[in-house]
Design goal:
Helices cover 43% and strands 15% of the residues. By secondary structure, the protein is of the alpha/beta class. The chain is built from 24 helices and 18 strands. Adenosine-5'-diphosphate (ADP) binds at residues 22, 25-26, 29, 46, 48-54, 300.
């Protein structure tokens, strides 16, 4: 990098002011930057829009040599490179979309030490000839963006990322910084272990996006529900996510027919049309982009005012990421998620039919259940979402649908006690499926093998069906009465709160209007 003449300690701030034209640091940025400039490794967990890029871009300019930035998506790289070029930062990228001469130019600049930052795709970085080229260069630091891609637990697992752990041995003494907006404990541990960041300092920002309002409704008439959501938002930019290409096309056409400026975006469209629609969305005001999840990663449009999901996302992480594209400018933004039993059935069969190993399927099912738990919760959505990311919020948020219009609930204490006594009587060593079989008194092979039909809890839950018990367990998880031990095949364990409920010292209630309507019906019968 081009060292700016200044004392070492205020150099990051000077670069922030002079190169990036920004008045001050946000959140943990300064601390992270100082740590990396001093040569430390870091794992940075920050929500989307939190300002992760500066955390490696400023150290890249403070330290001598070139910073290598691994990034999984070409669109994302291009976006960053465009921004940096405008700021006169010496930056290049190496990925499969470049022409031969562009690639040659980038490599020459690297060889001659004329680069501050080089963005590379993970598969390219690990190629022997490229690594050899780097041996001849002075490397200022290694940044691994979207580091959750290293985790199978994450929603964008990329096998190429697994090799990045080798960088530790290849570049001893070069600071490494891994960044992601995915913060659950499992992903965090995978990043540390697989990228060999054993001694890296963890910087965990709050994942709360207080300006985003969460609303989740059972899906009854999706088209009409969407229209009434959009009615008050005319002239604002927003994203509507659908699961399939077909429903993207249909929804976009339906909106256009109602006089709303909407464009479709999915991987089945011609790439020229796709990028035309993306550009229109980025540049114009008041456009609704109807998209599959193919759209969005790395898109930096600050004034997206709403995000609607017409179908259930695959996980809470995905939901959080996708809703997180709203309100990056910090101004109020709204979200709407519609979910129905059909979505759930579809998502489950997508998992069942995938080619993933059995362990991955188990994890994916658990993640889907976690999202459903938030859909079904009778308490604050934000508290439930943040709890999933390991963050405790003392008070309900006041800016989600359940906070704004409290829902009807039923006293689930007895049901919870039955469920948790099944957990307790089997020594907290079994997963939800088997526990429900116990409650329903199912005569399975596993039941016979473990002699569980002799338990006093066997068959005590026949007043409900399987969907209701699944929902009860999800709510026990969301409300923190039990937890899943992912290292022991998804075994359910009681927490202190769970014990209190089991012993009649605390009560628990469940929401009445869940999509699994059978629960309501069953309770009403009593
Ligand atoms: P992330 O990668 O965490 O999603 P970015 O690094 O893309 O976020 O930053 C999101 C937006 O916030 C960008 O427009 C960026 O310019 C802006 N930003 C980042 N840090 C600051 C800061 N300290 N002051 C003002 N704006 C900032
Ligand atoms: Zn709330």
């Amino acid at each position: 990098a081009q060292p700016i003449q200044t004392t070492a300690s205020d150099q990051p701030r000077r670069i922030l002011n002079t190169v990036f034209g920004l008045p001050g640091f946000r959140g943990d940025q300064q601390e992270i930057i100082e740590h990396v400039v001093a040569g430390g490794d870091a794992i940075v967990l920050m929500p989307t829009g939190g300002g992760k890029s500066l955390c490696y871009q400023i150290p890249a300019l403070c330290r001598s040599g070139v910073a290598i930035v691994v990034s999984p998506l070409i669109a994302l790289m291009r976006n960053q490179v465009d921004i940096l070029r405008q700021l006169d930062v010496r930056v290049a990228t190496l990925n499969s979309s470049l022409s031969g001469s562009e690639r040659f130019k980038a490599k020459a600049a690297l060889r001659d030490g004329r680069l501050d930052l080089l963005y590379v795709a993970p598969e390219r970085l690990m190629m022997p000839d490229f690594l050899e080229m780097l041996d001849g260069a002075e490397v200022a630091l290694l940044a691994i963006d979207e580091a959750h891609c290293v985790s199978q637990w994450g929603h964008d697992f990329r096998p190429e990322y697994l090799q990045l752990g080798e960088l530790a041995a290849r570049f001893p003494g070069v600071p490494r910084i891994a960044l992601t907006a995915t913060a659950d404990r499992q992903t965090r541990e995978d990043i540390r272990r697989r990228l060999k960041l054993d001694t890296a300092r963890l910087f965990l920002s709050s994942f709360d996006r207080p300006n985003i309002r969460y609303a989740i409704l059972p899906k009854t008439e999706p088209r009409r529900q969407l229209m009434s959501f959009l009615k008050t938002r005319q002239g604002e930019s927003g994203i509507v996510y659908c699961l399939s290409r077909k429903s993207v096309d249909e929804t976009a056409a339906g909106l256009q027919a109602s006089g709303i400026r909407a464009l479709p975006y999915h991987a089945g469209l011609d790439s020229a049309i796709r990028s035309h629609h993306q550009d229109a969305f980025l540049k114009e005001d008041g456009l609704v982009l109807v998209a599959t999840i193919a759209f969005g990663m790395g898109i930096d449009k600050p004034d997206v005012r709403f995000v609607a999901h017409l179908d259930l996302p695959g996980s809470l992480e995905a939901y959080y990421q996708e809703t997180g594209r709203a309100g990056r400018d910090g101004l109020p933004a709204e979200t709407l998620l519609l979910y129905g039993m059909q979505d759930l059935v579809l998502r489950r069969s997508m998992i069942d039919q995938s080619q993933s190993p059995i362990e991955v399927k188990r994890i994916e099912r658990a993640k889907l259940e976690a999202l459903l738990g938030v859909c079904e919760t009778a308490s604050c959505r934000r508290q439930a979402i943040l709890a999933h990311f390991g963050e405790r919020m003392a008070e309900p948020c006041g800016n989600c649908d359940t906070c704004l219009a409290p829902v009807e609930t039923w006293d689930g204490t007895v049901a919870a006690q039955k469920a948790m006594s099944a957990v307790f009587r089997t020594n907290q060593r079994f997963g939800v499926g088997h526990l429900i079989d116990i409650l329903l008194g199912a005569n399975t092979e596993k039941m016979r093998r473990f002699g569980h039909s002799r338990l006093p809890t066997f068959g005590v839950g026949k007043e409900f069906g399987k969907p209701v018990w699944s929902s009860v367990f999800r709510q026990l998880i969301v409300q923190g009465a039990v937890e899943i031990d992912h290292d022991h095949f998804g075994a359910i364990k009681l927490t202190a709160l769970g014990r209190d409920i089991l012993h009649g010292k605390a009560a628990i209630s469940f929401r009445r209007d869940r999509a699994t309507r059978t629960a309501t019906a069953a309770v009403a019968k009593k």
